[in-house]
Design brief:
The complex is a heterodimer of chains A (about 300) and B (about 200).
Chain A (H helix, E strand, L loop, with lengths): L1 E4 L3 E2 L5 H4 L10 E4 L5 E2 L1 H17 L5 E3 L4 H9 L2 H5 L4 E3 L15 E6 L2 H22 L4 H22 L3 E10 L5 E10 L3 H10 L9 H11 L12 H11 L3 E7 L1 E5 L9 E2 L5 E11 L3 H5 L9
Parallel strand pairs in A: 1-3, 2-4, 3-5, 5-6
Antiparallel strand pairs in A: 7-8, 8-9, 9-13, 10-11, 10-13, 11-12
Chain B lengths: L7 E7 H8 L10 H18 L2 E7 L8 H14 L9 E8 L1 H14 L2 E6 L3 E6 L3 H13 L1 E3 H8 L3 H13 L3 E2 L6 E4 L10
Classes of the chains: A alpha/beta (about 300), B alpha/beta (about 200).
């Protein structure tokens, strides 16, 4: 049995140890030990689902997941709808498993499956209903930019439908990063286990890279240059526009696909811009962090790329 | 209102309600490519049913969220459909009710395709969105102020050679942003031909 100990903080910074689960031998059962997890965010939750599915597809048995002992973490996982998505993928043990209760929730968007364009509409409808107040009052976004948050969600979710050739998940939530950044942030995670950037772009772009067509070169082609598998000149702009918006708001965006990750890194973060030789995970895993505006910034238009 | 060429009909599309009719759903936002495609096809078929040349007013007043994919399909490709010689009708396009949150996706797709779009922008008034050259911008603005004008009048106003102005006007007409000169040599701003607008 391969043991994967989940980090205390289950978020993008500590995702790679989880991804190593895909290195299990074929047929080897995997145990994810989340007993001591103290913090989770959408990237960590959806990342765990993604890795769990990848492992499940290679194994004869469901991987095991020992749930966090912390009642707070268990409660949060329930509010985010984690358990209903996890049950088909894991054999769940221990922890504080609860049903998602009806009533007022502070969640911006629970873990939501994205399998069709209709799902994208549902996501945007839901976030608009809940999110406008949160974005404008808690994160001090001007109304115009709160609408653009929905545009980001729409475009990034559509990437699943248009490119992955399979379904995926999306979730978003606000947090108080007082220690890390001194303000609130909204975290968006969108993931699929589809064909990934390298395979998607290979037929139309691989020949331009005589040395090697890799996950990293595919990500650079799409992320940096807006290249796409479609010949339509109007295509390939979703990621570029998302990058512009995220940069304008002083945020961070990363895309992991296959064995590489590429990111636009703001001054408040020290992640590498490009990472390679990561454990291979199919599809694409996107993480976006948008900081709250301070009052003065919220009143004035932000210059492009400025730190919030 | 300026006296329009007799064959021109102003035709307004409330995009929010049209998408509901076109896609047979209750979608309240203009997002995703299939929605944009369905919206465009709905507009094209209504223009075809009209059977006349028209100014198509794309009304964004009730649109809350507009994403880049939908804007690309519904607006950019719509304009492109009516550019070629074998276009299905003489249709010109003007946007109304364009709010801040609409401008960025509209501008992005217009610039991407080298297009322009006359637009009534909230709190701003009429402006030319997209990728006009400097001379095109000057000519459009001068014609917008005048409502109607001849080539020589516009050349005098913008202080550029008539040949250069003629080329700019031809380019704007090709991109469906103004009515090209009629037999009298008069060009028409789209906004001037709408009911209720002073000419």
């Amino acid at each position: 049995m391969k043991l994967i100990t989940l980090p205390l903080s289950l978020d993008e910074r500590y995702f790679e140890p989880i991804a190593r689960a895909v290195l299990a031998e074929p047929g080897e059962r995997v145990l994810f030990d989340g007993t001591h997890v103290r913090w989770v965010d959408p990237y960590g939750l959806i990342g765990l689902l993604a890795v769990g599915r990848a492992v499940r597809e290679r194994a004869e048995e469901l991987p095991l997941l020992k749930l966090p002992e912390s009642p707070d973490v268990g409660s949060y996982m329930a509010r985010m709808g984690f358990f209903e998505h996890a049950e088909p993928l894991f054999e769940l043990h221990g922890g504080q498993r609860r049903g998602r209760h009806d009533g007022v929730s502070d969640v911006l968007l629970e873990i939501t499956a994205v399998n069709s364009h209709a799902d994208v509409h549902s996501v945007v409808d839901l976030v608009n209903q809940r999110g406008m107040r949160i974005l404008t009052t808690q994160l001090n976004y001007p109304v115009r930019e709160a609408f653009q948050f929905s545009v980001i969600l729409s475009e990034v979710c559509q990437n699943i439908i248009e490119h992955a050739e399979t379904g995926g998940w999306v979730a978003t939530q606000t947090y108080n990063w007082q220690k890390r950044l001194g303000r609130k942030v909204v975290v968006i995670a969108v993931m699929d286990l589809g064909v990934g950037f390298r395979q998607s772009l290979a037929p139309s772009h691989a020949a331009r890279y005589p040395e090697a067509w890799t996950d990293a070169s595919a990500l650079e082609a799409a992320f940096m240059h807006g290249q796409t598998r479609f010949r339509d000149p109007g295509r390939g702009q979703g990621i570029q526009q998302i990058r512009k918006l995220v940069a304008r708001w002083g945020g961070r965006i990363s895309i992991r696909s296959g064995s590489a990750r590429i990111a636009d890194v703001p001054p408040w973060d020290d992640s590498p811009r490009l990472e390679q030789d990561l454990p291979y995970l199919p599809g694409a895993q996107i993480g976006i962090v948008l900081p709250a505006r301070v009052e003065a910034e919220a009143r004035a238009p932000a210059p492009a790329g400025a730190r919030s | 209102m300026s006296q329009a060429p007799a064959h021109l009909v102003p035709f307004s599309f409330d995009l929010s309600s049209l998408v509901k009719r076109s896609v047979a759903s209750l979608y309240s936002h203009l997002i995703t490519r299939p929605t944009g495609r369905a919206l465009r096809m709905g507009i094209e078929s209504q223009i075809a049913e009209l059977g006349a040349s028209c100014i198509s007013v794309l009304d964004f007043t009730q649109v809350v969220v507009l994403d880049y994919s939908c804007a690309d399909e519904a607006v950019a490709k719509l304009i492109q459909r009516f550019q070629p010689q074998d276009r299905p009708a003489e249709a010109y396009f003007l946007a109304r009710g364009v709010a801040d949150q609409h401008r960025e996706p509209l501008e992005a797709v217009l610039i991407r395709h080298g297009l322009v779009l006359s637009a009534d922008v909230e709190d701003v008034g009429y402006m030319l969105l997209g990728a006009p050259s400097l001379v095109e911008q000057l000519c459009w603005a001068a014609l917008e102020r005048a409502g109607t004008a001849t080539l020589s009048e516009l050349a005098s106003t913008v202080q550029h050679a008539e040949e250069e102005v003629a080329s700019a006007l031809e380019s704007l007409a090709y991109r469906r942003a103004l009515i090209p000169a009629d037999a009298s040599g008069t060009y028409y701003a789209l906004s001037a031909l709408l009911p209720g607008n002073p000419g």
